[in-house]
Design goal:
302 residues; alpha/beta; 13 strands
Length: 302
């Protein structure tokens, strides 16, 4: 009986151990991104280069469902596999693909660092390991006083998840039901809820039939809210003029106005104008001939 209990416990430990191994071996969902060892154009110190690698890795790790394989692990893997050429790909797409295959990654990110005074400019590009092609590239600029973590996450988002490279735009206005256009497309009406907008400069127009348009360029930053107070000025005498003409009743909304065409006065109709032009032409011809060849039959025919 005691032997049976020991055997049962042993089997349980084996099963638990196997389950743990299966869980560890299970592939991670989403992207698996390896950062290739960074290169420097200006001979940056090894410590400074590693600090930039850590910063870039942190930006990539901040993306949803993304697993990061560090540049240090990548370098160790190349040494273990005796593939030293994969440690210094220097942006070569085929080499970066082989590095991704070695580390079983879905994407590889390459970083090339340049120093401009007190600023670091990092050229980044991503390679899809399955296709062996470059997906996209961007530039990470790190200046003195900048929020390095935010800038790194923004660059990683633009590189690997461009649909998430957005900020928020909120449009306030004292005029209700004004239409908001962004880059020529209608995006809502005031009062407008916060809008998710791609990062960058956008042409905005807020319009209302009783007010002059509000036109501005707005800059939207990554993961920041941009608030615009659109001050629409009323058109002078617009409603009063329509009410005085009896076209618009008191309290009516001009935007719902259906314009009715008034009848054209007789003196502006086409046949009146045409007849007048013909009479002027005949009189001019008579005067030009001195009146000597004036034909009474011509007038009778008219």
């Amino acid at each position: 009986m005691h032997a049976i209990k020991i055997l049962s416990c042993s089997l349980l430990l084996v099963v638990l151990g196997a389950s743990r191994n299966v869980a560890e071996a299970a592939p991670a969902t989403g992207k698996s991104v390896v950062l290739a060892p960074a290169t420097s154009m200006g001979g940056a110190a090894k410590k400074g280069l590693r600090n930039l690698e850590v910063l870039i890795e942190g930006g990539i790790a901040a993306l949803p469902q993304t697993q990061v394989i560090s540049a240090v692990k990548a370098a160790k893997a190349t040494r273990k596999a005796k593939r030293p050429e994969l440690r210094t790909c220097e942006g070569n797409t085929s080499c970066l693909k082989e590095l991704g295959v070695l580390l079983n990654a879905s994407h590889v990110v390459y970083a090339e660092v340049s120093d401009l005074g007190d600023a670091h400019v990092v050229y980044l590009k991503s390679v899809d390991v399955s296709t062996g092609s470059e997906v996209r590239s961007t530039t990470l600029k790190l200046t003195k006083g900048s929020n390095r973590k935010t800038e790194s996450k923004a660059a990683a988002t633009q590189l690997l998840e461009p649909t998430l490279y957005v900020g928020t735009l909120k449009v306030n206005s004292t005029v209700a039901d004004a239409t908001v256009f962004l880059d020529g497309h209608k995006v809502g009406s005031t009062p407008s809820p916060p809008l998710s907008v791609y990062v960058g400069s956008h042409a905005m127009r807020v319009t209302h039939p009783e007010h002059s348009d509000y036109v501005r360029f707005v800059d939207v930053r990554f993961e920041e809210e941009t608030v615009v107070d659109a001050q629409l000025l009323g058109l002078p005498g617009h409603s009063e003029k329509l009410q005085a003409e009896g076209v618009l009743g008191n309290g009516a909304n001009p935007s719902n106005l259906i314009v009715k065409h008034r009848a054209t006065p007789w003196y502006l109709r086409w046949y009146t104008i045409s007849g007048g032009v013909a009479a002027i032409a005949i009189t001019s011809a008579v005067l030009a001939s001195g009146g000597s060849s004036f034909d009474a039959d011509l007038i009778r025919d008219l």
